[in-house]
Amino acid sequence: MFCKNKQCLLGKQERTYKLDSYIDVTIIEKQTNRKYKKMQNFHPTGVCPIRDILSHLSSKWATLILITLNANKTMRFSDIQKSIGDISQRMLTVTLRSLETDGLISRKIYAEIPPRVEYKLTERGYSLIPHIEGLVNWAIENMPMIMKNRKTNKLTTNGQESF
């Protein structure tokens, strides 16, 4: 589907076509009618499902919370915080809300005094666990070489981080 057509000052014509619901390919045409493939974009200004979902899941806290709930099944807020250790109360609250909004965890509030709130994975959350475990296994397998590369890189840059 044709998205935009823009005439450039240098005699080039730029057209962007939608290939999927979230990928654009820009073709630059010179006056000689040669076409050059410029790049694929993932909608930095629009709604990109990949970018949106990964932004929630890629935080270390979200991953740790999902792994913790998988290991312990149902947990209270304070138990999650104790098991993770260095997460602040505010960050835990924000991350739990985000995971709940995405339907990865559920929250159950008990009408007791004092109130009791429990969190657990939903079916969608459980369906994500094998993928997280795959990433964790990959990290464990590759960690020695990655650490060696980091050490080598630090030595060749005189101790200055190149990131």
TrEMBL record:
The entry's keywords: DNA-binding, Transcription, Transcription regulation
Annotated Gene3D superfamilies: Winged helix-like DNA-binding domain superfamily/Winged helix DNA-binding domain (1.10.10.10)
GO molecular function, one term: DNA binding
InterPro entries listed in its UniProt record: HTH_HxlR (IPR002577), WH-like_DNA-bd_sf (IPR036388), WH_DNA-bd_sf (IPR036390)
UniProt-listed Pfam families: HxlR
Signal sequence interval, chain numbering: none
All copies of domain HTH hxlR-type, residue ranges: 48-147
Transcription in keyword set: yes
UniProt-listed PROSITE patterns: HTH_HXLR
Domain of life of the organism encoding this protein: Bacteria
Descriptive protein name: HxlR family transcriptional regulator
Organism (species): Coprobacter fastidiosus NSB1 = JCM 33896
